[in-house]
């Protein structure tokens, strides 16, 4: 819970679009878990992150949700070819 005027920071992973997105998806869902399984010897840790990212709302959905719940200055700043992003909204006054 944030007091009015407080800032929330969300650093999230997302899946970029276009050709780069297709390559990233191949890497993120197939190659990374396979390498993780070889290095760590277990499936779970490297399958959890792609599954978690898939369930997390897309940036536009997240911004819409935050705007509808009294957050202001909602924006998504993409990093690393839009595979990561930061959402720093401010908690607005409650009606």
- CA-CA gap between termini: 16 Å
The radius of gyration is: 16 Å
- Sheet with the most strands, sense and barrel status: 3 strands, antiparallel
Helix content: 40-55%
Q: Record the strand order, biggest sheet.
A: 1-4-3
* Quaternary structure of the protein: single chain
The residue-averaged pLDDT reads 81
Low-confidence stretches: none
Protein structure class: alpha+beta
How many runs of DSSP E, i.e. beta strands?
5
**What share of the residues does DSSP label as strand, in percent?**
15-25%
Shape: elongated
Number of helices: 3
| SSE order | EHHHEEEE
Structure in words:
This protein has 95 residues and is an alpha+beta fold. It contains three helices and five strands. The protein has helices at 18-40, 44-55, 59-67, and strands spanning 10-13, 71-72, 77-79, 84-87, 90-91. Helix 1 (18-40) packs antiparallel against helix 2. The longest helix is centred in the N-terminal third of the chain and has 23 residues, at 18-40. The model has no long low-confidence stretch (mean pLDDT 81).
Describe how the helices and strands are arranged:
Layout lengths: L9 E4 L4 H23 L3 H12 L3 H9 L3 E2 L4 E3 L4 E4 L2 E2 L4
Antiparallel strand pairs: 1-4, 2-5, 3-4
Helix pairs in contact: 1-2
Report a brief summary of the structure:
The chain has 95 residues and is α+β, with helices and mostly antiparallel strands. It has helices at residues 18-40, 44-55, 59-67; strands at residues 10-13, 71-72, 77-79, 84-87, 90-91.
